[in-house]
Write a structure and sequence with these properties.
mainly alpha
């Protein structure tokens, strides 16, 4: 809307200006709720990924500021932030959060390290003190359960058939 419409509304004694301010306040409250949701889920990420999300959402740092701290290009920070948000909102992430307490301890550890924290299979095996074979088997089992619940495999991930 142009400022001329607000001037006309004010001259007519309309309450359009206060209604617009009210909407802005509601949007800020909604955004803060979204930020809190993202930060809550980010607490499950690896420390490196969590630092990026917290810097952006909690501390309000720009991609340029984060890039200087991380000694990378700002585009890298933007891309990584988008990837992390996509990861936090993914159905697989939600599935693991909802079901991990029902799983065996090795499956829980693998789910937390590989799926929630986005660690490689090799790093997961090393940190969990498991063999690569066990880690692969647990990941395949988690993905099979995920797909059995009616979800499709995530883009860029191997399906059970391949």
């Amino acid at each position: 809307m142009s400022s001329g419409i607000f001037q006309i509304a004010a001259a007519a004694g309309s309450d359009l200006g206060s209604a617009r301010r009210k909407v802005l306040v509601d949007r800020r409250a909604e955004r803060r709720t979204d930020d809190d949701w993202v930060l809550n889920r980010a607490s499950l990420l690896s420390p490196e990924d969590r630092a990026v999300v917290e810097g952006f959402y909690d501390k309000g740092m720009s991609a340029v500021q984060l890039a200087r701290l991380m000694d990378v290009h700002p585009g890298t920070v933007r891309r990584r932030t988008r990837e992390l948000l996509r990861h936090l909102r993914s159905p697989l992430f939600s599935f693991v959060l909802a079901h991990r307490s029902q799983w065996s301890e090795p499956r829980q550890v693998v789910a937390e390290l590989h799926i929630l924290q986005r660690r490689t299979l090799r790093d997961t095996a090393r940190r969990a003190h498991l063999t690569m074979h066990v880690v692969r088997r647990e990941v395949e089992h988690i993905r099979a359960r995920f797909e059995a619940m009616g979800f499709e495999p995530e883009r860029g991930q191997r399906s059970q058939a391949s």
